[in-house]
Amino acid sequence: MKGLSEDAKRLILEAPDTTKRTSVFLLLSLVLLAGGLGLSWVGMGDSWTCELDSSEPTHDFICRDLRRIIGCNNISGPVQAEILLNVKGEVKASAYMECSWDHAISELRVCFLLIAGLSVLLGLHALSRESKKDADFFVQASYFFVFLMFMTSTFDIFAVSDSETNNQDVCNLRGAFEMAKGIEGERLQCTYDFYRTTAFYGYLCALSLLVSAVQVKNWISTLSLDDL
């Protein structure tokens, strides 16, 4: 941490204008990658919550049965869904669930973003030390991670599209529909906006990393022979 703070101080206070300008692009990429990590982290794991408009202990079975009727085991993720029910005309229940990406997709995205962020830190270190070797390594690594993040985001979009198609018969129901004997549904609505945003945000991260790599490559050309 001390080394990173010294590098940051050197870039902000002592570096030439070209180095400062290049470091701004790297810092922006780092912030965007951190945002991508945050989105990926929030989107990992399934969640399911149920609420009743009655506190009667005799109605506790409703949420248990509702989860059995509809949950992440019988709906295709990634999706966020909300269902409103009228149970035997006596009590109303609502359930909200988040069914996440396939675990392999989430874990790969997190790994790519994390390692890409580490490569940006290496790029900042190269700028502060005026190290052509480290800068070249950052540029080559960035091109590789740009490709990986671009492909991951593309697969994410396909996953969201597949989820919408697979859930067409289940989601976006309106009016009265019977979920089970004595259990009448009032609304079942699914949304995919969060997961679609995560996918497109990956393209933004890839683009920022590509621009940073180009900036560092241009910065390398400004180094004198003594710095190489």
UniProtKB/TrEMBL annotation:
What transmembrane ranges does the database entry give? 24-44, 104-125, 137-160, 200-220
Superkingdom assignment: Eukaryota
Which UniProt key words apply to this protein? Membrane, Transmembrane, Transmembrane helix
The entry's protein name is MARVEL domain-containing protein
